[in-house]
Amino acid sequence: MKLRVDPNHFRQMLENVLIHRGDVELDTNVGTFTPTRVEFRDISLEVMSIAATYDREFFIEYDASDEQIPFSKSLLNQMKRGFGGGNLMSVYTEDENIHLEGETEHYEESLIEIAPVDFPIQFREDDILGLVPESLNATVQILAESEVLANLPKSEEYLFRCDGEKLEVVVEDVGRYTKKFIPIVERSIGELEVKFNAAYYAKVSNQFSGEVWLSLNKDAAVFSQKKDDCMLTYMLGSL
To answer: Which CATH number fits domain 2-110: 3.40.50.1220, 1.10.3720.10, 3.40.930.10, 3.10.150.10?
Structure first.
C-alpha cells in the first residue's frame, strides 16, 4: 500500500476512524484496502460502531491491492505533532512497517498484528444517507447542520424527545437545558423518547462538519454523512 495525501485529510481520517475528541477512543482501526477504496469497520466499543469508506479520489495518489492495514493512535499522535509543513505526504507499508513521510519528517513503526474480528452489522450504501445499517428503521430521521447536533452542555446522559412534530434534547445537570433541533430536511418525525451516553454522543457528533443525517429509534442513533469521495457513519446504542 502506498498513498500520497494532503496531511490535513489524512489526519482528519485518522481522527474520524479512531474517534478522536480531546483524547483518542480506539487504539487501532483496521483499513481494508481494495484497488478502489479503503473501508473501516469497528465495533470494539460495543455501545458504538463505526463504518467509513474513503474512495481513491480522497487521496492524491492511491496504490493498493486487497490487504488489511492497521492504523494506530500513535500514528495520529505523530500527525498531531508534525507533518503539517507541506501540502503532500506519503503513507506506505514496507518490510512489515508503516511509514509516514513528509517534506522534512519521517516516522515508522511496526505493523500491529491484526486479530480476526466479527462485525455482525451489515451496512448498505444509500445514495443520500451514505452508509446505514441494513436493519435501520428510523422513527425520527432529519438532516441538520453538524453544529446544531453537537456542542451540547456536559452531562452524564442526553434525553431525546419527539412528540411527532418537533425533536428536542433535554440535558439535566444542576439545572435543565432544552434544545429544539431545526432540521434542513425532515424525512420522518414520529413519537420517540430515548437516552444516550453523553460522552459518547459528544465524541461522535463532533466528528462532522457540514450537513449530517441523524436517524433515531428506541435502540440507537445513527449519524451518517455522504460526500463525493468518502462516507462516515457512527451508530450509538441507547441507554
So the answer is: 3.10.150.10
CATH topology of domain 124-237: Proliferating Cell Nuclear Antigen (3.70.10)
Distance CA(210)–CA(225), nearest Å, equals: 9
Sequence spans of domains, the chain: 2-110, 124-237
Task: Return the CA Rg of the chain.
Answer: 19
CA distances, 158 to each of 68, 114, 205 (Å): 36, 35, 13
DSSP for 188-235, please give it.
EE-EEEEEEEHHHHHHHHTT--SEEEEEE-SSEEEEEEE-SSEEEEEE
Cα–Cα–Cα angle for 4, 26, 101, nearest 5°?
25
- For cell 453538524, the residue is 146
From residue 43, how far is each of 37, 51, 147, 220 by CA, in Å? 20, 9, 26, 14
> Which strands, in side-by-side order, build the sheet including 157-163?
176-180, 167-172, 157-163, 191-197
Q: pLDDT for 83-142, tens place per residue? A: 987 889 999 999 999 999 999 999 999 998 887 777 889 999 999 999 999 999 999 999
Q: What is the pLDDT of residues 22-40, one digit of tens each?
A: 788 999 999 999 999 999 9
User: What is the value of pTM for the model shown?
Assistant: 0.96
